[in-house]
Amino acid sequence: MRVLVAPDKFKGSLTAAEVASAVAAGLADVHPALAVTTLPVADGGEGTVDAAVAAGFRRVRVPARGPTGAPVTASYAVLGDTAVVELAEASGLHRLPGAPEPLTATSAGTGDVIAAAVRAGCRRIVLGVGGSACTDGGAGMLAALGARLLDDDGRDLPSGGAALSRLASLDLTNLSRVDIELASDVDHPLHEAASVYGPQKGASPEDVGILAAALRHWASIAGPEFASRPGAGAAGGVGFAAMAVLGARMRPGIELLLDLLGFDAALTGASLVVTGEGSLDGQTLAGKAPAGVARAAAARGVPCVAVSGRCSLSPAELAGAGISAAYALTDLEPDPARCMAEAAPLLRRLAHRVAAGYFSLSR
After folding, report:
1. Res 360 pLDDT > 60
2. Contacts of 121 (CB under 8 A, 6+ apart)
3. Which of 13, 107, 241, 280 has the largest count of CB atoms under 10 Å?
4. What single-letter DSSP state applies at residue 160?
5. In which residue ranges of the chain is CATH 3.90.1510.10 found?
6. Distance from chain centroid for Cα 50
7. Does the keyword Kinase apply (predicted)?
């Protein structure tokens, strides 16, 4: 009998690969003969490149600009002519060197990484758009790919979302054309990019108003018919720029990543799937990785259980998501700080309970 362990990261504690390793070790402690396959997953946010590398892609490190324009080293993953680019690698909140800069933060670094992958011969770009620090409508990304955003005097606009209010024209003459698939669990239109996500990136109420007006103006020039599309507001409007200007296609992040990582093949012969993430909560039900894994397992008639740092979902909610049972670190250790600090050994112990439940499910 075989178990497929396919978790997302425990944010702030463990990568998805570390979660999978701890669960596999705990299962082996109880049933050494149990065949366990690990497949770390992601939904397009932080950890997407790591998941691709764990699935056999090669990591490539390249120079890029961070959200403030400061130089950083970012990674993408490549297999054949497909590159997996994670926006958070260059343009994520964790790349901010100090306080947030909501009005001037840029997505240029994401464009730098895409451009590097294209120069290396990649023809297909899978772009995960979670965890951004910017609300620039994707303008920085486009500029890094060769577009010019000009003011009334024909000068290039400075970086950031606020500057878009001064946009007079968009010159796409030298824009690199690239085949992009967007991996995102965000379905907000562009006009909600500032109001819904701006405060998470340090925007004050006044900043939100400035950014919202600037994004409306940006959309009126770059492609007003795309502004209301679901996902246009992803990553501060990167979704909009990718769809309106680059012709990108958007798919739910976890669905796209499961296809890319070979989940269906890994599932063959499994009698149980173990998935998970740091917190099983309402966001999980809105399309996060564990719900996507459970849905894919259910389509093949394979039961799925989940591990997490904490779980606030009811048994009915879990069942509705296709998760037969949930096991949380807080079941073992009530102190959240210790759960974070000792996540790996606690998760290994938690997997002992999963192993016991596995045989009850398979009877």
Report:
1. no
2. 81
3. 107
4. S
5. 48-254
6. 11
7. yes
Q: Are 299 and 328 contacting, i.e. CB atoms less than 8 angstroms apart?
A: no
What's the rounded mean pLDDT across residues 334-348?
95
* Spatial CB neighbours of 103, under 8 Å, sequence gap ≥ 6: 160, 161, 162, 203, 207, 210, 211
Q: Is the pLDDT score of 363 beyond 60?
A: no
Q: Using the 8-state DSSP alphabet, how is residue 231 labeled?
A: T
In this structure, the strands spanning 179-184 and 304-311 are: unpaired
Mean local confidence (pLDDT), 232-236:
96
Instruction: Give the separation between CA 26 and CA 327, rounded to whole angstroms.
Output: 13
Phi, psi (deg, nearest 5) at residue 328: -115, 150
Compute the distance between CA of residue 106 and CA of residue 92 in angstroms, rounded to an integer: 10
CATH of 2-39+267-362, one of 3.40.50.10350, 3.30.230.10, 3.90.180.10, 3.10.450.50: 3.40.50.10350
β partners of residue 125? 83, 180
Phi, then psi, of 58 in degrees rounded to 5 = -100, 135
Give the pairing type, strands 71-79 and 82-86: antiparallel
The residues, any chain, with a CB within 8 Å of residue 113's CB and separated by 6 or more, are: 62, 64, 74, 76, 85, 89, 90
In the chain, CATH 3.40.50.10350 covers: 2-39+267-362
CB–CB of 291/280 below 8 Å? no
Residue 357 binned pLDDT confidence (cut-offs 50, 70, 90):
confident
3 residue type, one letter: V
Q: Using one digit for the tens of pLDDT, what is the confidence trace for 255-284?
A: 999 999 999 999 999 999 999 999 999 989
**By three-state DSSP, how is residue 74 classified?**
strand
Contacts of 166 (CB under 8 A, 6+ apart): 151, 152, 157
- Conformational region of residue 189, where left means phi above 0, alpha means psi within -120 to 50, and beta covers everything else: beta
Determine whether 335 is exposed, middle or buried from the number of CB atoms within 10 Å of its CB (0-12, 13-18, 19+).
Answer: exposed
Q: pLDDT tens, 75-107?
A: 999 999 999 999 999 999 999 988 899 999 999
Distance between CA atoms of residues 28 and 15, nearest Å: 20
Helix (H, G, I), strand (E, B) or coil at 169: strand
Domain 48-254 matching CATH 3.30.110.70: the answer reads: no
